[in-house]
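Work Package 3 (structural annotation) set out to generate three-dimensional models for the target panel prioritized at the project kickoff. During this period the team completed the workflow that converts sequence records into discrete structure tokens, so that structures can be stored uniformly alongside our sequence database. As a representative example, we reproduce one entry of 359 residues exactly as it appears in the project archive.
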Amino acid sequence: MATTEAIATGEGQEAAALLERTRETVNPELRRTVESLPGSMRRVAMYHFGWEHADGTPAAGNAGKAIRPALVLAAAQALQGHGQGHGHGQASGGQVGDAVRAAAAVELAHNFTLLHDDVIDKDTRRRGRATAWTVFGIPDAIITGDAMMALALRLLAEDPHPASAEASARLAACVIELCAGQQADCAFEQRAYVSLDECLTMATAKTGALLGCACALGALYAGAGPDEADAMDAFGREAGLAFQLIDDLIGIWGDPGHTGKPAGADLLARKKSLPVVAALTSGTEAGEELAALYAGPMTGDDVRKAADAVDRAGGRDWAQAHAADRMGRAVQQLSRAVPDLGAAGGLLALAEFVTRRTR
């Protein structure tokens, strides 16, 4: 898969192995849950995850990289046996396998956002195939996304683990924050000026919140106390912002053969991504050129010009440097929960992967 091909050595190989193990561990639970959906929603969801073709016949499957569920399991692993209890009568860490339902719930919540985002952004390709809304229509895609979010909360509600209630509350709060970030992202497209601070706040809510929640849920399922869970949440948020910065760079310069999306798709949609806003607010001549391009409809040639303007205005270099800075902050937060970072090898490998990936 592209995940393993994108990583070369060291932490990269560890991350690839961890992601593969996560898919093997979580996908059966994920698929069992999705298959519980009724009729047409099940068909849309099975197609979205790559398990079926549009006609309902079996497909090889490409349910995504599984970064978020991997963070749940890696956080549980890092804190296993180190928990201080979480007020539910569990004084020590549980088994990592206990967190599989929580990992599946986080992945369902993530895919709820993907189904909706594809509609909002009018994206026609995801994971190398047509997006669900282009195949089944907008209403079915939105409704199936709603059902996935309900499935995520049901998974936690039905989980007998002592941390499930607190995990459910955290996930629900996270999704509200995530929706606020998405709403801000949409609003930015209608505004001529967006500050870099506003854009960073939006990205933290839209991307960082769910990665932070994933890490916090893993901590809770390991028996961690509130302070450790909060530190893990902060780690995930900082890593999530680094992830978004790299994702924004890929949205401009990524290879369509690997991303599954057209080249410069974010520029074509005139999205106020982080590198773009950094360029627009740079006070440079290239930033002014980009603003002029963003003021009207974009053609294929305009997309190439815009990408060049972002680069010349310093947006690309700023995004790469800021991603590295955020990862430094993430490690500081991680050390609050896991003083011996040697026990957090999986989390560090995943963080390295999301900030070094190129597609």
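The first strand starts at residue 125 and ends at 126.
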